[in-house]
Amino acid sequence: MYFLTGWPRRLLCPLKSEEEPFHVQPSSQRFYFAVLSETQLSVWFSRPSVLIVSYIESAKASSQFGFYQQAEWKQDDSMIAVAAANGYILLFDVVGGGEDKYLYEPVYSKGSRGVKVTPGYKEEQCAPALSLEMKRPIDLEAPITSMQSLQEDLLVSTADGYLHILHWDGVSNGRKAISLCSVPFSLDLQSARGGLCLDLKGVYIRDMTYCVTLDGFAVVLDDGRLGFITPLANRITADLQGVWAADVTDGTCVAVNNKYRLVTFGCASGSVLVYSIDTTTGSMQLSHKLELTPKHYPDVCNKTGAVKLIRWSPDYSVAMVTWECGGLSLWSVFGAHLICTLGEDFAYRSDGTKKDPINISSMCWGAEGYHLWVITSREETELVENMEEAPPQTQQAGILQFNFIKSALTVNPCTSNQEQVLLHGEDRLYLTCGDPTQLPSGSSESPHPHNLPHGGEGSPTHHPSPNSTSQGLSTLLGYKHWHVVQIHSTYLESNWPIRFAAIDTAGQCIAVAGRRGFAHYCMSTRKWKLFGNITQEQNMTVTGGLVWWNGFVVVACYNFIDRQEELRLYLRSSNLDNTFSSVTKLHSDTLLLNVFRDMIILFRADCSICLYSMERRHDGPNPSASVELLQEVSMSRYIPHPALVVSVTLTSVRTETGITLKAPQQACMADSIILNLAGQLIMLQRDRSGPQLQEKLPFCPPVVLAQYVENVWTTCRSNRKKRHLLEALWLSCGEAGMKVWLPLFPRDHRKPHSFLSRRIMLPFHINIYPLAVLFEDALVLGASNETVVYDSLQGPREGRESLEGLFPYCTVERTSQIYLHHILRQLLVRNLGEQALLLAQSCAALPYFPHVMELMVHVVLEEEATSREPIPDPLLPTVAKFITEFPLFLQTIVHCARKTEFALWNYLFAAVGNPKDLFEECLMAQDLDTAASYLIILQNMEVPAVSRQHATLLFNTALEQGKWDLCRHMIRFLKAIGSGEMETPPPTPTTQEPSSTGGFEFFRNRSISLSQSADSIAAGKFNLQKTFSMPSGPSAKGSERWSKDSDCAENMYIDMMLRRHARHLLEHVRLKELGCFSAQLGFELIGWLCHERTRVARVDDFVMALKCLHKDFLWPFPVTPAGSISSPFKNGHRRTVLSQHLLKSQSADSLLNSDMDTVPPQAAARNSNHTWLDRLGALGPTEPTEMDTALSHGGPQTQEAFLSPLTNKTEECSIGSATDLTETSSMVDGDWTMVDENFSALSLTHSELEHISMELANKGPHKSQVQLRYLLHVFMEAGCLEWCVVIGLILREATVIKQVVNFLDSPEVPHETVQSVRSGLLGVEAWASTDCLGYKPFLNLIRPQLQKLIETSVEQIQPEAFLPGASNSKLAEPQPGGPSAEDSRGPALLGLALPLEPPRGLGTEDGGVPEEQEEQAVDEGVYDCTLS
After folding, report:
1. 45-88 pLDDT, tens per residue?
2. Residue 347: how many CB atoms within 10 A of its CB?
3. Of the candidates 1088, 1091, 1092, the residue with the CA atom closest to the CA atom of residue 1075
4. Cα separation of 660 and 645, whole Å?
5. β-pairing, 240-244 with 185-186?
6. What is the pLDDT of residues 536-558, one digit of tens each?
7. 491 with 528: CB under 8 angstroms?
8. Surface-to-core class of residue 401, CB atoms within 10 Å of its CB (0-12 exposed, 13-18 middle, 19+ buried)
């Protein structure tokens, strides 16, 4: 409602004096402030806050009258009355300085155009020159205790028990004095006739205030009793009647709230009692209390001392309170606590030491409540004084000025302000509508230090709602900054203060109205529109507020020229000028204004309500609006005073029985008028019993809906899916929180129960002060004060602290809160479960709906499980049953349990069910992440054997579903159970990695290095050395490289499950999953395949395996052009190979397409006679696109990816791995020379081009190609030759088949393997001939190898040769005796035909290379090749 901002300002008096000011009193309009010191009366101006005039009493007069004590202004600001200590009233005339006399004038910088001024303009915007003239003093012959200004009279109470009524002129009619003893006091006006009176002998009035709307005086007597005195006649005469409040004897001060008819009394106990006057009996009834609670202020709640001052804001929406011990506290009308300076950063320095609270001797609100003027006590002033050393006898007096911003609802409670939070300070606006980054740049507003973001804990605002119809508001919730708009300075100069502000429902247009005229601002253009003719602006003042409708600003204003109240509509898009306005004359002053669809409702000063219809017309160059009076309703019978009406609203809300789910269209109609009458919510419904006249139905007598209402929210939108929320009425009730008047709908179009009410009022508490309601999103928006301490930057000066050290810097934070769980709970408490279900189902799509369910369970659980008394009818079972209606039941329960302390679990699961059963339900529903959360519960509630059993179940399921992140957690969990680490359960994953099923993520997170010496290359021996490092990428988070200790049963058990799963995957030819499994869980695939080489790693059916791979890797079956099986190329190998090379480069697959791609250049050069690359002459091998590292004798060197002529190089070159292969190949210009020269000679025919396009079409996805090549490398390493043949077939790599066939000549290969490969290839050939002719060209290409395989006689060899340790056996030697590539390539070369590196975590069977060996490998010049 009201929020402190920034630091307080200190106003220094230009006149130095020994006296300190101690009292400040504002004039009725709060433009002037009278400041008193002992012998001096000063008048200050509000804006600019400067001293205008000072009257200093002579020493002689001062000794006669005594020191000044308090002051009071006449209602028209023309006189000031000052009470002096010796019983004198001193009357001063405030005299203007005449024409064109003013103290200050604006100074414009060079080049800026001066403002065109109208007569009186300068006096209004600059401080006028005034003088004070003292009139004859009035001696009341007794010390004066309080004064109160009335319209024509001045009421003064004295310590001798008299009440004096003086005329302001001090002469006419003399004065009347009424003895307090003659005023009968009773508990109510009815009992007063019985003669029971209070004994008031010797008692006088300590403090009093006049209440206009109650027409009486609230008084505090010197014995602490509280009373209210009412004159029986129209004028104050001797006929006075008093009522007093029972059981209160410690009153200290009093203030009244005219808008809400409340009387507030401060007490010596530190609390403020708020009374209302019963209209029938006249008795004082305690409404509520304003007091600090031990919950929020345990240190100070009983140590504040007596209440010293209470001051209501000018709009009567908040009260500021201060105590004898100091401090300030702000409350809303009905007790919502907003600010207190006795706690947190106000009370403690940044180093934790306590500050003394600020001690206040007087305070008052400034114009429109933007400032609080505070005069601190003498010792406080010395402490706060922030200026250079001055002589102790003369000092500049200082006044503190606290700055506030307030909600637009306080003075302009119109519908368009209800879904946006709009705050206004004296010169700027704060909006929640929109992220400035999404709006056009070139903002006219500057960033402001108030825009510090503060994240609200538990706030749902970071969830945008995807399916909201509330005009995109939800998508803006996550943005925590305010959008600050500086009000145009030209408008402010002549029209300060801003009185009204309104924003349109889309949050894109704002209008503000000050003393005269108005201005509006557009968010999209970032521009203000002001009246072009300043005379038009100065000739109107907005009286009843302003509101946006359909691109028009609707204004209720007073026209000074015609002296006429008017209703005007100005088009936003045109210039701001009266020629573009629609004007309707009104008969009475307008106090309030609101809009419902195309209707305007006005509340007027004669207590009548007028309804107008509006229509937008397009009959001219600019759209115009026509306004027509529909109906007038007199409310004078029900409203005692027009100022009591806080807000007026037209709404479609009604109570009649016609509410059904079939008739939402009636929501369009304005069925009811809702008035907030001094906190009482009154509804007038249309009377539909008579003839049905459209829009002109009479209204029924009013019905009171609620008490203590501060704000009302309703909407004219309709949404069939969320009728509960959109047809409800939302109320803010101060300390009591919020209330919602919810409609109850029969389900499935059934007839409503006769006993069931049509609506129900549900109260609920929220932790923020509500400023806007997002109806569809089930959210309340608000704001709260936050503080930032800067005292560490400012050291104490000469024993005094600066303002920055005394006060923290105040910011305003956007807040929001979910309320849905409160409403659902209230419905369940009242056995309205069916309505709760309807409401919850309508909101189930909200992103924070799971959070709503958790909150509901959590709040009920905390209340019931921690209750000291037994609960006769517990709600938790009902809530649990309710949540089972939603699919997120299991997840809600476990999340709630894990956020609740362990001691409450038994109570929770007694209501919702056994956690073992819930775990099994999660498994059945395939919700593994939630099941993992239940595992934590089971681990704490059950014995380890049960946890292990359930963890094994979950682990197996996670393996089957490929949830690798969860698998890693489960491995750690099972180990923790085995090693007894019961107290540190692993974190449960909340989301499955999106990428974990998409491919082999180990390509991202592996680092592999190959060390090769020049000797081994020269000798033809290749030594593969693997180094391992811990995974660091997101896919491997939480995984650990766990050593397999043979004596650790848990490790053996886990290893057995992993091997079993790998066997299962290989048996079912799920190679893609096998690769992911190996990479994600660090499974040693090569070592395991070596074991399983002759068992599960055999291929029984090559055709079936080939088909499975095609399906698994999304690899297309090859096709051939019609009528062509063999290659169409006629010009020999050179041309064929060139076309292949073009294909490879153009298809963006610079993959390792030949056996030479990964062989070091020396070896490649030696074997180049036997490769197809040799036929290309100048063309070299396709290098991998990304060379992460290069191994050379001089250390690592970076190589760019390019095609270069094959030359002999002496240094070692990096051997590319499968993971080096990326998407595009690049060639340096020189490498294209041969292609350029020969391309014109190629003259490719149509059939050749078709062949090239077919080759392109026959390739699978690039990612699949990389994965297949990696698997090929793994199977080569493990010696699983049958799988190598299958992968070679799908990749159509003739060199792979050649290698395998040549290797089959080796005596170490088992005879069964040779037979299997031979029969498999024959089977594939037979299948290709009948079912897949696309494979025929490739099979024809490898026919020599197939023929050789059939003819070759195979010798039996010993299986020991295949053990992993046999790296230096005769298998690694090149076959002697033959220059051919087939003969010179030994088995160890098999791994080099493809990228060699296994994934990180793959290694020899005993778990990888030891640490020392890794370090040694690095020292030898081996570098990790990190793969992206």
Report:
1. 998 888 999 999 999 999 999 999 999 999 999 999 999 999 99
2. 18
3. 1088
4. 32
5. parallel
6. 999 999 999 999 999 999 999 99
7. yes
8. middle
Is pLDDT above 60 for 324? yes
In this structure, are residues 297 and 340 in contact, taking their beta carbons and an 8 Å threshold? yes
* CB-CB contact of 354 with 299 (8 Å): no
| Banded pLDDT at 765 (limits 50, 70, 90) | very high
- State the number of CA atoms in the 13 A half-sphere of 1332 facing the CB: 20
Residues 6+ apart with CB under 8 A from 1152: 1158, 1182, 1184, 1216, 1218, 1221, 1269, 1394, 1395
Residue 1389 has what DSSP assignment? G
Query: Which pLDDT tens digit goes with each residue over 1236-1291?
Result: 444 444 556 777 777 777 777 778 888 999 999 999 999 888 888 888 999 998 88
- DSSP summary character for residue 515: S
E strands, 408-460, are: 422-424, 428-431
In contact, 1415 and 1204? CB cutoff 8 Å: no
Name the DSSP class of 1136: H
What letter would DSSP give residue 1404? S
Residue in the structure block whose two tokens are 């609670």: 293
C-alpha 182/C-alpha 163 separation (Å) is 11
Asked whether the beta carbons of 869 and 749 are under 8 A apart, the reply is no
Residue appearing with tokens 């396009």: 1253
Whether 90 and 39 have beta carbons less than 8 Å apart is answered as: no
Kindly tell me the burial class for residue 158, based on how many C-beta atoms sit within 10 Å of its own C-beta (0-12, 13-18, 19 or more).
buried
Query: What number of residues does the chain have?
Result: 1428
Instruction: Give the range among 70-74, 384-388, 1309-1313 with minimum mean pLDDT.
Output: 384-388
* Beta strands across the sheet bearing 284-290: 251-257, 262-267, 272-277, 284-290
Q: Sheet holding 216-221: strands in order across?
A: 185-186, 240-244, 226-231, 216-221, 205-211
Strand partners, 811: 786
Residue 1384 has pLDDT above 60, yes or no: no
H helical segments located in 678-819:
723-726, 803-806
Which pLDDT band, with edges at 50, 70 and 90, does 396 fall under? Answer: low
333 close to 257: Cβ distance less than 8 angstroms? yes
**Nearest CA-CA partner of 515 in 966, 1097, 46:** 46
Tokens of 1045: 């200790």
The one-letter code for the residue type at 117 is V
Helices 915-924 and 928-941 sit at what angle, rounded to 10 degrees? 160
667: how many CB neighbours lie within 10 A of its CB?
20
Structure tokens at 829: 């408490």
**CA-to-CA dists, residue 661 to 723, 746, 823, angstroms:** 9, 7, 20
> What pTM did the predictor assign?
0.75
Q: Which of 1096, 1116, 1097 has its CA nearest to residue 1106?
A: 1116
Sign of the torsion angle spanned by Cα atoms 442, 443, 449, 454: negative
Using a 10 angstrom Cβ sphere, with 0-12 exposed, 13-18 middle and 19 or more buried, the burial of residue 661 is middle
According to DSSP, the β-strands at 599-604 and 608-617 are antiparallel
- Beta pairing, strands 540-549 & 552-559: antiparallel
| Interatomic CA distance for residues 1078 and 1061, integer angstroms | 11
Strand partners, 611: 601, 631
Contact 1228, 1204 (CB under 8 A): yes
φ, ψ of residue 31 to 5 degrees: the values are: -90, -25
Tokens of 179: 């003895």
| 105, two tokens | 């004038």
The residue type at 1380 = S
Look at residue 542 and give its three-state secondary structure: strand
Q: What is the C-alpha end-to-end distance of the chain, expressed in Å?
A: 55
Q: How far apart are CA 1321 and CA 406, in angstroms?
A: 84
